[in-house]
Design goal:
This is Transglutaminase-like domain-containing protein. The protein is built from 17 helices and 74 strands.
Length: 1082
């Protein structure tokens, strides 16, 4: 049986603003319209409106056609079929992704192979699951045969033919479903009948023959409907089949399917209704789509009727629909496939949860009413078709009305149209230059307007929307620039809403005989009217023409005393004109002068921003004019460019004034800008070239406390054009600086670059002084030097630290050494590049009494061209290192300790004065390694030998401490730290424990250095014990014989017992032995 009529449904798309009308599409079920896109600034919403004079009131129901109350109820014959267990099992089967992924992997080569796969996969599964397997396989693998359908030349629709071609029409789908059910021994029948699908709207009267086929199946003694054709996909507007699963048609409810599927008379039992309906009733019922039932919609009037009539003595029809609170509707009226302009609107009665849908035809004829819906408040969610009705107008009423296009925002925000009423079209004739729409709105609502022509182009100067405080009404003026058709859109939102405006209402404007020149409005924002601003000049236009020779133009605005303004000039390319505006308050005239100086001939946008003086927030847009500049004199007039912060922080430029562009030459290669500002504001500078690249050493800025003036000097580094920025922030603000003012610097006559000292404010605040080197901040490292040394003099309460980074802003480990030379009363800052290239050396400072961070005071820029490998690097040192006059002898000229794979320890040698004692430790991941470090004195080399024995590979820290034995402070202090990278460890040792007297007498262990001895082993002990008279050892907890110490050497060979071994010595007249060293026995 060929499929004569199949459903037509549109794919789901998200509605977005500015999109054009959706394209119509023919797909297997009937068309599922989605909401058309909107022209507003924001996402569209449903069309909803409050009643006007000619809008029905609550008595509308009394005037509805009486037939609405008489239609038969649709009741399923088997009320137990859709019980909770069935519903749950059905939904679980549909939702189970493992079923879908498994079925999608099937690759049957024949029908019998497919049956075998189905049988195997169905083992242990429920009957509902088995039916889903069949439904999903068919929907995923059988394409709708569009060629057969449109040519009426139907191919083989047997299961074998459909499987072979993987194509079919409705009969092929139904036959395939039954065939597979039969082989799984599940009862199934093919139903022949009629459907309201593609082409249904075009037919007149009842169909002469059946035109569709589907299935009924028996599950647990209940019968259910299955529509695999409509579940497989749809035809698009190119009459191409698009495969898309629609699970709604899997085991569908009979009381819903009856609206679009009617079995033939001989099979009316398969309606599965308590009382079957007739063909006449079927044809008179509305087209209710799956979404209608999914949204729990209820058509109140007309009740179960597809046809709607105009209300008596009214020019429109009404459709009443009840929905849950979270359901939103959209509707439109069509005739001959085109929407009727102004022919529809919706009012939502929140109290009754009732949608009143009004439809006003413009001509006689058959109209189509389309109702769309969605659930939830997500603005990005699409509306989809839920229901179609028919409005057949035989005679037009005497008085016709039309509705402006209304969105849900209109009703939600309580808006009301005062003028014009009962129309969507405003006509401008006989020289009338603009249309006015009056809107009432609550105090917490604000509006915005937009005028577009018939091509969708926005007329930037065509709308003016403002609130008249005297009349307490919103005046929305729209001025077309020529004859033609325009759309006047009004958007709205609550004042406390920080988001976008939402479409509220729109009218059409038919403009004829528009006067020339046409009226235009400068663009104004709500702020302009909220702040009580008044435009003094120019009036009646948005365009200012500058005549030949004029240097700048002026806009005059009067404001309340608590309002301040700022401006910006932008050229036709959207580029802000640097130094192109100056906005200031004329106290004598009591108004603001907003001056704009174009830098060339052309069209410019002059923007004026405003805010209350008490408002801590940003300036906001208030009004905008266009400027047409002709024959601008050269060089053009310019203003220093100022930003919002300039006014917010009450800054004042002292010099240069009235010049935004400054020329520098070889005779005067720098630009000095002097400013005043409040005490709580800090300034910084920045110099950029014409490629927006920041120029290193391109500026200095500091505060001169004696004259209470900020001095900013800009130094271009080559010939060209530059921009010098002055940035500001509150001193209490921990965030970034932001631009406050800027100058254009013309350095095209400059042949050589300057080299200023790169200083920061702290440099001047702390009264720092550079002793060496002389000159600027750029230093080229000589061939014979591996580091740069900077010497500074500071007050006694200032401390310094340093940092070295490369040209990629990567910190150079071991790249700096900063210390205070007490002997010469200066700070020495050394910086060692690790390779050839450019480096940035920073010197930071703070007060000794200040517990906070260091602040950048001075920077140098180092160019290194002859760095030898390995490069010099500095270990991390503390000031005490230099106070104690320590010297590192090994490792020399490097920041890291040396590790040899064949040695169990690393060595550091330090020379120290006689009154300094050293100690050390080794750490791994900030945890001290027990007995991992040994310090002793090497008399041959006259240095302290510090040994470090790691327990594992990896990164370690070698900490070195020192103390002065003559100081009252007996605590050792950190003096240096070496990183140690252990790559391979052949032998692990722990040093013996040494006691304080070992360091006091500057002793040394020659052997053994391993502090862990093996019981029974024979060990040679050799120590250097200065000033000792006698020495002995303990072994197995007993004292061995004592021996004289000859030339400070003590040597003995010992068989190790089971207990710890100690070495003791007698000093001077002390009769007791002093323990110096202890070994443990394993």
């Amino acid at each position: 049986m060929g499929c004569r009529i199949c459903r037509d449904e549109k794919p789901i798309d998200i509605i977005k603003p500015y999109d054009k009308e959706p394209r119509s599409a023919h797909i297997i079920p009937e068309p599922d319209y989605k909401a058309p896109s909107d022209h507003s600034h924001s996402k569209p919403e449903p069309q909803i409106h409050q009643p006007t004079k000619d809008t029905p009131d609550d008595n509308t129901k009394e005037k509805l056609p009486s037939s609405a109350e008489k239609f038969i109820d649709i009741v399923p014959a088997d009320l137990d079929a859709f019980n909770q267990i069935f519903i749950q099992q059905r939904q679980e089967a549909v939702n189970r992704t493992s079923y879908r992924s498994a079925i999608e992997r099937w690759n049957p080569t024949s029908l019998s192979h497919l049956i075998d796969i189905l049988k195997t996969f169905s083992e242990g599964k429920s009957i509902i699951d088995r039916h889903w397997f069949i439904f999903y396989w068919i929907a995923s693998n059988i394409q709708y045969d569009t060629v057969s359908y449109f040519t009426k030349n139907y191919q083989d629709q047997t299961p074998e033919g459909v499987f072979r071609t993987r194509k079919g029409v409705c009969a092929g789908y139904a036959n395939m479903y039954k065939y597979l059910c039969d082989h799984l021994k599940m009862p199934c029948e093919v139903v022949s009948g009629y459907s309201k699908g593609y082409g249904f709207d075009d037919q007149e009267g009842a169909p002469s023959e059946v035109n569709h086929a589907w299935n009924v199946v028996e599950i647990y003694n209940h019968w259910y409907l299955v529509e695999s054709t409509w579940g497989a996909g749809y035809l698009n507007d190119k009459k191409e089949f698009v495969q898309r699963l629609e699970a709604y048609y899997f085991l569908a409810r009979p009381n819903e399917m009856i609206y679009h599927h009617l079995p033939r008379k001989e099979e009316e039992r398969w309606q599965l209704l308590e009382k079957p309906i007739s063909m006449a009733q079927y044809l008179s019922m509305p087209k209710l789509r799956p979404l209608y039932f999914q949204l729990n919609m209820e058509l109140i009037s007309p009740c179960n009727l597809a046809h709607v009539d105009l209300l008596a003595e009214r020019s429109y029809a009404v459709v009443l629909i009840k929905t849950p609170a979270d359901v939103h509707l959209l509707a439109h009226l069509e005739m001959n496939g085109k929407k009727v302009e102004g022919g529809y609107q919706i009012i939502f009665d929140r109290l009754k949860q009732m949608h009143r849908c009004y439809f006003a035809p413009a001509n006689v004829g058959k109209h189509k009413i389309v109702v769309l819906g969605k659930r939830g408040d997500d603005k990005n969610e699409s509306y989809h078709s839920a229901m179609d009705l028919i409005l057949d107008v035989k005679q037009m009423p005497a008085k016709c009305v039309s509705f402006p296009k209304i969105w849900e925002t209109f009703t939600d925000l309580g808006l009301e149209i005062m003028s014009p009423q009962d129309t969507h079209l405003i006509k401008l004739v006989n020289g009338v230059a603009f249309a006015q729409i009056l809107i009432k709105a609550p105090e917490n609502v604000k509006l915005l307007g937009k005028l577009t022509d018939e091509t969708g182009k926005v007329l930037n100067s065509g709308a003016q929307v403002y609130f008249s405080r005297e009349e307490k009404i919103w005046k929305c003026n729209f001025a077309p620039d020529r004859s033609g058709l325009f759309e006047a859109a009004i958007m709205a939102k609550e004042k406390n809403d920080t988001g976008s405006y939402w479409s509220a209402v729109s009218f059409k404007i038919d403009a004829k005989q528009i006067p020339s020149p046409n009226m235009s409005y400068p663009r104004t924002w709500k702020l302009f009217h909220n702040l009580g601003m008044k435009l003094v000049s120019p009036m009646g236009t948005h365009l200012i023409n500058m005549n030949s020779g004029e240097k700048f133009t002026q806009i005059v605005i009067r404001t309340p005393s608590d309002v301040k303004l700022m401006g910006e000039l932008v050229d036709s390319d959207g580029q802000s004109v640097t130094c192109g505006n100056r906005v200031y308050y004329d106290r004598q005239k009591d108004y603001w002068r907003c001056r704009f100086a174009p830098n060339k001939s052309g069209i410019f946008s002059a923007s004026i921003f405003a805010k209350k003086t008490s408002d801590p927030g940003n300036f906001q847009s208030a009004i905008l004019f266009k400027i047409c500049a002709n024959q601008i004199p050269l060089p053009p007039f310019s203003f220093p460019k100022t930003w919002q912060l300039y006014y917010d922080f009450n800054l004042k430029i002292l010099s240069p004034v009235s010049r935004g562009i400054i020329v520098v030459t070889d005779d005067k290669p720098t630009v000095e800008v002097r400013l005043q500002g409040p005490a709580d504001v800090a300034l910084v500078g920045r110099l950029e070239n014409d490629r927006k690249e920041v120029i290193l050493r391109g500026h200095t800025i500091h505060y001169d406390s004696e004259s209470d003036v900020w001095c900013c000097t800009f130094v271009p580094n080559r010939s060209g054009t530059f921009q010098g920025f002055i940035c500001a922030k509150k001193k209490s603000d921990s965030g970034n600086f932001f631009a406050a003012a800027s100058y254009i610097i013309d350095a095209r006559q400059l042949s050589s670059a300057g080299n200023p000292l790169d200083t920061k404010q702290i440099f001047y605040d702390f009264k720092l002084e550079v002793i060496y080197p002389e000159g600027g901040s750029k230093i080229v490292l000589p061939d014979n030097r591996s580091f740069v040394e900077v010497r500074l003099k500071t007050p006694s309460d200032v401390v310094l630290m340093g940092s070295l980074t490369n040209d990629q802003n990567q910190k150079i480990s071991g790249g700096h050494e900063v210390y205070y030379d007490r002997r010469h009363d200066i700070w020495c800052c050394r910086f060692a590049p690790n390779k050839n290239g450019l480096f940035h050396a920073t010197i930071l400072a703070k007060k000794t009494s200040d517990d906070s961070l260091f602040y950048e005071a001075l920077a140098y820029h180092i160019e290194a061209n002859h760095i030898a490998a390995p490069a010099l690097s500095f270990p991390q040192t503390w000031q005490v290192f230099y106070d104690f006059d320590l010297k590192i002898k090994s490792p020399r000229s490097r920041a890291t300790a040396i590790w040899c794979d064949d040695s169990p320890y690393s060595e550091v040698l330090i020379r120290a004065p006689d009154d300094v004692r050293m100690s050390c430790s080794i750490q791994y991941k900030h945890q001290k390694v027990e007995n991992g470090a040994l310090v002793q004195y090497d008399y041959e080399r006259n240095v302290w030998q510090l040994l470090f024995a790691p327990e594992r590979t990896g990164e370690h820290e070698l900490m070195i401490y020192a103390r002065n034995i003559n100081s009252d402070d007996k605590k050792s202090k950190s003096v240096a730290m070496f990183p140690l990278h252990v790559t391979h460890l052949q032998q692990r040792i722990k040093f013996p424990t040494i006691y304080p007297e070992f360091l006091t007498y500057k002793c040394r262990i020659y052997s053994p250095l391993n502090g862990q001895l093996t019981r029974g082993s024979v060990v040679d002990f050799h120590c250097y014990l200065p000033e000792a008279v006698l020495a002995t050892m303990t072994n197995n907890s007993r004292m061995l014989r004592e021996e004289n110490v000859v030339n400070c050497n003590f040597q003995r060979t010992l068989t190790v017992g089971s207990d710890e071994v100690t070495i003791c010595a007698k000093y001077g007249r002390n009769p007791h032995y002093t323990v110096l060293i202890k070994y443990i026995v394993e």
